Amino acid sequence: MKKFAALVIAVILVSGCMQLEPKKKFDAQYFDYFDTFTSFTVYADDEEQFAEYEELFSSELERYHQLFDIYENYSGLNNIKTINDNAGITSVQVDEEIIKLLEFAKEEYEKTGGQVNVAMGSVLSIWHDYREGGISDPQRAQIPGMQELERAAAHMDIEAVRIDSGKSSVYLEDSAMSLDVGAVAKGYAARRICEKLRKAGVNSALISIGGNVQTIGAKADGDLWRVGIQNPDSSQGQSYLYAVELKDLALVTSGTYQRYYEVDGVRYHHIIDPKTLMPRQEFVSVSILSPDGGEADALSTAVFNLPLEEGMELIGSLDNTEAFWVYEDGREVFSPGFKNYIRD
């Protein structure tokens, strides 16, 4: 017994003195998904382990891109476009991830008082077409008429989106309705991919899908991830307003500088207020901090379309959630805890 005990102690002492090899940082970039730039940063033991993580990440990214696409069909796959194509015709059996996304979107609709509505594709498609036309031919740029928008708005009742989770099917009761999940899709995908990476053994990573940032843990050395909040005014020569430090948090910013066109000197961006059917002109960006990337994505749109007082009240009602507003005139407003994450 004494010899055995001595051997155990010796093994413990030797193993305690051994130095583990530090994890290495690896990066990958993608340009083919969600019509935006995506980056993946992860700490892994070696290139072989990174290759496994990267394969998981890229395959899941492609999968969510195809499932949530409203513009393209894919062989053997029913996606959001398939649902739209069958509006008023028949229910469509879809992947469980689409069911979960739409159920989540309905929850966010209720939570935000209708400020996030994935059923307003009929209105958003009009703005999309006018924006594309204005970008390609600025001299003929126009905004849609209110009558056209109001006719389309008659077909955005989210209650007409029938979800049958048991059959994993979705049916749009209104034949003129269409889904547009742009306000939630990237953040939701980021959150779900991070969950799958964690299960695969990843404990230190940062992903950014078009600026929808989600982190897993901290860096391998214990330092927090540092992410910049883009400056909406590119004329200032300063790319970022602030750097925030993140650990197991998401940062999502909605801004007027991302997708827009101009008509008679007025900028019309892509964030459409579901109540006025027009782009709101009060803020130039709203940034959200939250443990949930899907919710951060939804809230960045909802809070952008709310008056400051109502947006502040909504953020204050949620746990571990903060917001940062930038006005058209450059003024900045922070929710009570946001500055705790800012570092010089």
List keywords for this structure.
single chain; 344 residues; alpha+beta; T-fold; eight-stranded antiparallel sheet; 9 helices; 16 strands; 25% strand
General description of the model:
This protein is 35% helix and 25% strand. The chain is an alpha+beta fold. It has two domains: 24-68 and 183-343, ApbE-like domains (T-fold), CATH 3.10.520; 80-172, T-fold. The strands form four sheets. Strands 1-2-6-7-10-13-14-15 form an eight-stranded antiparallel β-sheet, covered by helices on one side. It has a three-stranded antiparallel β-sheet with strand order 3-5-4. A three-stranded antiparallel β-sheet has the order 8-9-16, with no helix packed on it. Strand 14 (322-327) and strand 15 (332-334) form a beta hairpin. Helix 2 (47-68) packs antiparallel against helix 7, helix 7 (185-199) runs antiparallel to helix 8 and helix 8 (293-304) packs antiparallel against helix 9.
Task: Annotate the secondary structure layout.
Layout: H1 2-17, E1 24-33, E2 36-44, H2 47-68, H3 80-85, E3 92-93, H4 96-111, H5 121-136, H6 146-153, E4 161-164, E5 169-172, H7 185-199, E6 205-209, E7 212-216, E8 225-230, E9 240-246, E10 250-255, E11 260-263, E12 266-269, E13 283-290, H8 293-304, H9 308-316, E14 322-327, E15 332-334, E16 342-343
Antiparallel strand pairs: 1-2, 2-6, 3-5, 4-5, 6-7, 7-10, 8-9, 9-16, 10-13, 11-12, 13-14, 14-15
